[in-house]
Amino acid sequence: MTVVTRFAPSPTGFLHIGGARTALFNWLYARHHGGIFHLRIEDTDRVRSTDAAIEAIIDGLKWLGLDWDGEIVYQFARAPRHAEVANQLLAAGKAYHCYCSPEELDEMRKAAQAAGKPMKYDGRWRDRDPKDAPTGIKPVIRIKAPLAGETIVVDGVQGEVRVGNEQLDDMILLRSDGTPTYMLSVVVDDHDMNITHVIRGDDHLTNTFRQRMIYDSMGWDAPHFSHIPLIHGPDGAKLSKRHGALGVEAYRDMGYLPAALRNYLLRLGWGHGDDEIISTAQAIEWFDLGGIGRSPSRFDFAKLDNLNGHYMRQSDDTDLAKAVADTLGKANDAASVALLTRAMPGLKSRAKNLKELAENAGFYVQSRPLAFVEKAQAILVAPETVALLPKLIETYTAAATWQAAALEETARGFAEAAGVKLGAVAQPLRAALTGSTQSPPIFEVMEILGKGEALMRLGDALQIKG
RNA sequence: GUCCCCAUCGUCUAGUGGCCUAGGACACCAGCCUCUCACGUUGGUAACACGGGUUCAAAUCCCGUUGGGGACGCCA
């Protein structure tokens, strides 16, 4: 049997981090089994669904590297098929017309609330003669829920979950305007698309019982369900915008790498022994339902940052340089890209995301004169520096070779002759050449900048006034 | 409120009755490396929610309590 999974978001907002993880798990499970992964847009809510959201979801999945098989299924387009199933159930006597008004339902809800019970439709139209139907009122179609016994769902994550059937009510399948409800649409689509494994958020666990009623009434086999616990914010409360319920594009803009986010999301709620750094190929090989944890997990930016730093260090220098050049507005400047590529080994271990990387790399391609941070400025106007810098420039102007090791040797000799520590020479150089007090190793910086540029920057530093 | 789910270091987790004086990772603290900052490296602090059982033996099984989460729509 071929494994078929799906990711079925409703396009009412961006692809948030929880959805991204659900998509990842479904994708991984399908790829692991050499199966099929479908994307289905659940756009039956015509008011809240937007094209922009559909766009955001598609872009987000592409950015994350989660490719789906076949055409995207748009649920709304299948509404006639959903209605057909509802009518089939009606004809088979497994569903019925209900003429309850919204007001009646409201009363029922209030009464239930007052009695401390969950809202449950009382089935008042379940067994009434169709001849009693009032005229001028469009009915909904409700399913006949089982009255006794219990429904058991064997969940891939939660195990055996059971609920008494008296908890279930005759839910609506088809609205009075003839459109299908979510419960109906999902079941019909999952069946028609031959979905074998449904992996979705925990919030759907109780829905599963209701969906089972439809499968049973139609005589269809239900897919295998796995409900993964939700992601919470750092404070344990529901994930809010403030702590990470952002669209994946927000993570992209913050400078996170798709590979890092994939690894992070994988480990959030799934484990494979002590393994932490897991490549996507490895994840496909290892992913299983049994590794999914049962308790909700909290989103932790610190760990994401750490992972992102790791993947940055692993990344190709040219790729990184291109990305940095792009954010620095130098994408079409081949010389800058080349220079940044050479500088990347020293740069990439010092940033935890692409944004920081670009900020730290800026000095390399900035045009003179540089802007100085306060501390760098202070170093350059200090008497010691003022006394030392001209002679240092002289020494370097006379340098025969311009390689980091040689430049460092020169500085060491210079420091020794002046009776100061190497740092007393290196920090002024750093301030003058990078405009900052922190940078990659300064002699490496000098080499990459080149003799001409380096000496001009040093000359600029001479002009600085306190 | 009713129903359902969950519960190991601050966080993500390993653990499926003896290998547990509970392992790893992030974060944190200290040392090393060192021209700065990182990276790297060495070490450290830190957890089985609580109470009852079952068993020769329980983080692991059962019951209860507490705490968290989810679902209770002609939304998805």
Keyword list:
single chain, 466 residues, mainly alpha, three-stranded parallel β-sheet, 19 helices, 12 strands, 49% helix, RNA-binding
Description:
There is one protein chain. The protein is mostly helical. It has helices spanning 17-32, 51-64, 79-91, 102-114, 182-192, 205-218, 248-253, 258-267, 280-286, 301-314, 317-327, 334-348, 354-365, 374-381, 383-397, 404-418, 422-434, 442-449, 451-462, and strands at 4-7, 36-41, 73-74, 95-98, 140-143, 150-155, 159-164, 172-174, 197-201, 224-228, 231-232, 297-298. The chain has a three-stranded parallel β-sheet with strand order 1-2-3, with helices on one face. Strands 4-5-8 form a three-stranded antiparallel β-sheet. Strands 6-7 form a two-stranded antiparallel sheet. α1 (17-32) links the parallel β1 (4-7) and β2. The longest helix is centred in the N-terminal third of the chain and has 16 residues, at 17-32. The protein is elongated. The model has no long low-confidence stretch (mean pLDDT 92). The chain binds one RNA strand of 76 nucleotides through α4, β7, α5, α6 and β12.
